[in-house]
Design brief:
CATH class of the largest domain: Alpha Beta
Largest sheet: 6 strands, parallel
Radius of gyration: 19 Å
Shape: globular
Strand content: 15-25%
CATH topology of the largest domain: Rossmann fold
Strand order of the largest sheet: 1-11-8-7-5-6
Number of strands: 11
Helix content: 40-55%
CATH superfamily of the largest domain: NAD(P)-binding Rossmann-like Domain
Structural class: alpha/beta
CATH architecture of the largest domain: 3-Layer(aba) Sandwich
Order of helices and strands: EHEHEHEHHHEHEHEEEEHEH
Distance between the termini: 46 Å
Number of helices: 10
Oligomer: single chain
Length: about 280
């Protein structure tokens, strides 16, 4: 069994991004819009701002009151779109119920849509012509490629159908000639499907959901799930038992999570280079 070390790979990616940005020698800013006081969001945002400083990007946090109007959020997005030095914009989710998250994301200039959540970004991905790709799916692909794990011709099972993970990942894998089955809460005979997968990707958010008897011998297992059990972060996979059976597996933490963060900065670099190349 080989660990797919997302922490190691992401460090290499971010180091490369930093070097490329130093060569460009331009003041680059990245804007995060945070609405409300969600504690989980606070942790993610602090990590992103910290990583910005490491890379040499100025991270700008626009922290809005949870009662802010949707029009005020829209006005802020438009202001940030107009600022040339801002190369990336994200709206941290979740947002309060009175804010239409997708509507606001769709107003972000697609070249600055670092999360890849807008209709334009998703549409380009579906048509095989992606610009910015949702960071978790892109990070998974980069991790597989780094370890030279074949994708073409492989049977892949994704347990997730969200707009953030499952759906974009489906298209990325199909475009790389995998045969993909997408499972979800209404899927029947899940175990029979997962046992046929050469690559099994789970993003359910249930600790020990994936057990040894659900996994094919020598399969590749990608654990996207994050849960807290007795104060410890854990994934979807029963790691001690499943890891004995597979060829490659991601740890939690230290697997997909760091790759997601790294892809944010790769996307920002892409926006910067696009502007320089005209």
């Amino acid at each position: 069994m080989i660990l797919l070390d997302g922490k190691k790979v992401s460090t290499e990616i971010i180091t490369n991004v930093k070097k490329e940005l130093e060569n460009i020698n331009e003041k680059i800013k990245f804007a995060i819009i945070w609405i409300g006081e969600d504690e989980g969001s606070r942790i993610y945002i602090n990590n992103k701002i910290k990583k910005c400083a490491e890379v040499g990007i100025e991270g700008l946090l626009y922290h809005l009151d949870e009662n802010v109007s949707e029009d005020e959020v829209i006005n802020l997005v438009n202001e940030l779109n107009a600022k040339k030095e801002i190369k990336g914009i994200i709206i941290q989710s979740p947002v309060p119920k009175h804010i239409n998250y997708l509507k606001c994301c769709n107003l972000i200039d697609y070249k600055k849509d670092i999360d890849g959540f807008s209709n334009i970004s998703v549409g380009n991905l579906c048509l095989g012509n992606p610009y910015h790709i949702s960071c978790t799916p892109e990070g998974i692909i980069k991790l597989l490629e780094y370890y030279h794990i074949p994708i073409a011709g492989q049977n892949v099972c994704i347990i997730n159908r969200s707009n953030i993970v499952g759906k974009p990942l489906f298209h990325l894998l199909i475009d790389r000639d995998a045969t993909v089955v997408m499972c979800h809460s209404k899927t029947k005979n899940l175990k029979e499907i997962t046992k046929e997968a050469d690559i099994l990707i789970s993003a359910v958010g249930k600790p020990k959901f994936i057990t040894e008897d659900m996994v094919k011998e020598n399969a590749v297992v990608i654990d996207v799930g994050i849960s807290r059990v007795d104060g410890h972060v854990t994934g979807d996979v029963d790691f001690p038992n499943v890891s004995k059976k597979v060829s490659y597996i991601t740890p939690v933490p230290g697997g997909v999570g760091p790759m997601t963060v790294a892809m944010i900065f790769e996307n920002i670099l892409k926006s910067v280079k696009e502007d320089h190349n005209g």
